[in-house]
Every structure is written in structure tokens, then in C-alpha cells.
């Protein structure tokens, strides 16, 4: 089975970090967003992922491709790259992988993470759509359903017709049939209100053609699409994975550091005179001294001294000295001040 991951977006809502790293490659507690997505499929699907197809923007080079190649190899999957030259919507993004749309395929947009305690069985369905019950369906595309059978799709409904939001994960028994409908949507210039080509228009055509669509509901759906969502999701994951910090708490206490769980600490971080936590993720190679951190993400090889941060995201190889409050700073930055306030 193939896993197709559209990830050509510019990730503007997680800037400044997406200026140098595509959003799906940003870390959540030590693991790239896209790798967590792949690991979830490996854990919850009843089929093996043999190929992973990444749909990238034209400007994405080897600094993006190399981590994806290595990650695919770690999970025993062939790695394929396709390019979306211009962002024209979800249907167009998937169609950019038309050479790979044959046989069983899963399509998963890399904006969100999900989890389920149950294994997913896709037998007997032409398509399966992953859904999550939400309080405000008007913010999402939703599935209209009868029992486990989906009868239609509506983008951001003004009236309550369904409370099951589409999370951006789809299974197709025959990718070639989807390709035909995507081609129809593009050739006939069928666009949504935003002026983009929607994947749901192709799915509607498949339903009207008699294809059987079933639901798969998830226990957890986590967003990484904005800075605040990335921070919140990181906190949820750090707490959920319940890292055993007993040895680190004892060892760092000798350097005058207090750890307040839940916290993720990579193995090779340096902490001296620090109060850290809760809900903090510190990636590999960071050096933090005389600082207090909570509800923050510190990316790899960053250096902090004399800082008090909360609700902050600090880029890789960045050096901060005497910075206080909330800050979102990209890679390779140098800031020395005590005047930044929340």
C-alpha cells in the first residue's frame, strides 16, 4: 500500500520557523510531525506501508528531501517525491501524485496528528474517511453519514448537518478511480468558494457513482498548523508519552536544575541553574543556563542564558541572552536584551 502525503504548503502560520524548515519537518517532542503521522499508520493500519510519496513545493531541496529519505528507510518504505508547482487546492495537490494513484492508497495531509486505540480495517470499502466528532462543525469539511456509510460531504456547513469533521486522512481501494475523478474536477474547472479545487468534489462524484464510503473515527486529533497549536500539541504529546524523568531529575539537580514534569529532554542537553517545565520540549544539543522555561519549544542546538520564557518557540542554533516573556524566533538568530515583554 502507498501513503501519499501532500506537504507543499509554505506553512505561513508557523513562521518564523517555516522560513527554514517545512512545517511537517518541525519536531514534536523529538520526532518530526510527518514521522509521527507515518508511525501512527504503521501502528493502526491492517496493511503495510510499502511506499511513501511526498508532494513537495518546487523550492524544497535536499535539506528537506534527505530527512524524508532517511525517515522512509527507517520504516522500510520506498521514498518517492512529486512536485506541486502552484498551490491550487487539495484536489490539485493529490493529482500531482497521479503517477502513483493506482492500487491501494492512503492520502494524509501533514497538518495534523491523530491517534486511535483501535486498529483500522478497510476491508469491504471502496474508500474510508477518517473523522472526528467536533463541537463546531462550521469550521471544517464534514461527512454526512448513515450508520458507518458516508452519503456526502459539505465544506464548512452553515447549518448543523453533521458533527463529524474530516481530519484529512483518506483510504482508497483503487487509486486509479480517484485519479479519474480528480481529472474531471480539474478539466471542468470545478472550484469551491475559495477558488480552489476541493478533494471533496472528487469524492462526491465517487459516491454518486455508487462507490461505498465508510467512516473511521479517531480518539484524538491534534493540530500543528499554527504556533499556538504546535505548542499545545507538543504539550499534549509530552504529557501523553509520560517520559520517565526520574534519572534526569536527579542528575540535573546536581547542576542546580529543577524539572517540573511533563517535560521532554533530548539525551544530550545541558541544563545549569534552570527551572524547566511544565510542558517544555528541548531538542538535542541545547545548552540552557540560569533560565526559567514553561510551555515552550526549544529546537536543536539552541543556547539560552538568563532567560525567562513562557509560551515561546525558539529556533535551531539560536542564541538568546536575558530575554524575558513570550518570543517566537527563527533559526540562527542572536538576541541579547531584557526588554521583550509578553
Description:
- The protein is of the alpha/beta class and 342 residues long.
- The chain has two domains: 2-228, Spore Coat Polysaccharide Biosynthesis Protein SpsA, Chain A (Alpha-Beta Complex); 244-336, Hexapeptide repeat proteins (UDP N-Acetylglucosamine Acyltransferase, domain 1, 3 Solenoid), CATH 2.160.10.10.
- It contains seven helices and 28 strands.
- The protein has helices at 33-44, 62-74, 90-95, 175-187, 199-208, 227-241, 246-253, and strands at residues 2-6, 27-28, 31-32, 51-56, 78-83, 105-108, 112-115, 127-133, 141-146, 149-155, 164-172, 213-217, 220-223, 258-259, 263-265, 270-272, 275-276, 280-282, 287-289, 292-294, 296-298, 303-305, 308-310, 313-314, 319-321, 324-325, 328-329, 334-336.
- The strands form seven sheets. The protein has a seven-stranded mixed beta sheet with strand order 5-4-1-6-11-8-12. Strands 14-17-20-23-26 form a five-stranded parallel beta sheet. A five-stranded parallel beta sheet has the order 15-18-21-24-27, with helices on one face.
- Helix 4 (175-187) packs across helix 5 (199-208).
- The model has no long low-confidence stretch (mean pLDDT 91).
Total beta strand runs: 28
Per DSSP, the total helix count is: 7
Using only CA atoms, what is the Rg?
Answer: 22 Å
Q: Alpha-carbon distance between the termini?
A: 48 Å
Q: Describe the sheet with the most strands.
A: 7 strands, mixed
Question: Characteristics of this structure?
Answer:
342 residues, Spore Coat Polysaccharide Biosynthesis Protein SpsA, Chain A, 23% helix, UDP N-Acetylglucosamine Acyltransferase, domain 1, 31% strand, seven-stranded mixed β-sheet, alpha/beta
Amino acid at each position: 500500500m502507498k501513503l501519499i502525503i501532500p506537504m507543499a504548503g509554505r506553512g505561513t502560520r508557523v513562521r518564523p520557523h517555516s522560513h527554514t524548515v517545512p512545517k511537517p519537518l518541525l519536531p514534536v517532542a523529538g520526532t518530526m510531525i510527518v514521522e509521527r503521522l507515518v508511525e501512527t499508520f504503521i501502528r493502526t493500519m491492517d496493511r503495510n506501508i510499502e511506499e511513501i510519496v511526498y508532494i513537495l513545493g518546487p523550492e524544497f531541496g535536499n535539506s528537506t528531501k534527505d530527512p524524508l529519505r532517511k525517515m522512509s528507510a527507517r520504516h522500510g518504505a520506498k521514498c518517492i517525491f512529486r512536485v506541486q508547482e502552484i498551490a491550487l487546492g487539495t484536489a490539485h495537490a493529490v493529482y500531482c501524485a497521479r503517477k502513483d494513484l493506482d492500487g491501494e492508497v492512503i492520502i494524509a495531509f501533514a497538518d495534523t496528528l491523530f491517534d486511535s486505540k483501535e486498529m483500522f480495517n478497510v476491508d469491504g470499502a471502496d474508500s474510508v474517511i477518517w473523522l472526528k466528532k467536533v463541537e463546531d462543525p462550521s469550521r471544517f469539511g464534514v461527512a454526512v453519514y448513515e450508520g458507518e456509510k458516508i452519503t456526502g460531504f459539505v465544506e464548512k456547513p452553515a447549518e448543523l448537518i453533521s458533527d463529524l469533521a474530516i481530519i484529512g486522512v483518506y483510504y482508497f481501494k483503487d487509486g486509479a478511480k480517484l485519479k479519474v475523478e480528480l481529472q474531471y474536477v480539474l478539466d471542468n474547472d470545478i472550484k469551491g468558494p475559495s477558488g480552489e479545487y476541493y478533494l471533496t468534489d472528487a469524492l462526491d462524484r465517487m459516491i454518486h457513482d455508487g462507490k461505498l464510503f465508510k467512516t473511521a473515527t479517531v480518539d484524538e486529533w491534534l493540530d500543528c498548523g499554527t504556533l499556538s497549536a504546535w505548542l499545545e500539541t507538543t504539550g499534549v504529546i509530552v504529557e501523553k508519552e509520560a517520559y520517565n524523568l526520574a534519572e534526569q531529575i536527579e542528575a540535573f539537580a546536581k547542576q542546580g536544575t529543577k524539572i517540573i514534569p511533563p517535560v521532554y529532554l533530548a539525551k544530550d542537553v545541558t541544563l545549569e541553574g534552570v527551572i524547566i517545565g511544565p510542558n517544555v520540549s528541548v531538542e538535542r544539543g541545547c545548552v540552557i543556563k540560569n533560565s526559567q522555561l514553561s510551555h515552550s519549544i526549544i529546537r536543536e542546538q539552541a543556547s539560552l542564558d538568563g532567560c525567562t520564557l513562557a509560551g515561546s518557540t525558539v529556533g535551531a542554533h539560536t542564541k538568546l541572552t536575558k530575554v524575558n516573556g513570550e518570543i517566537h524566533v527563527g533559526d540562527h538568530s542572536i538576541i541579547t536584551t531584557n526588554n521583550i515583554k509578553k
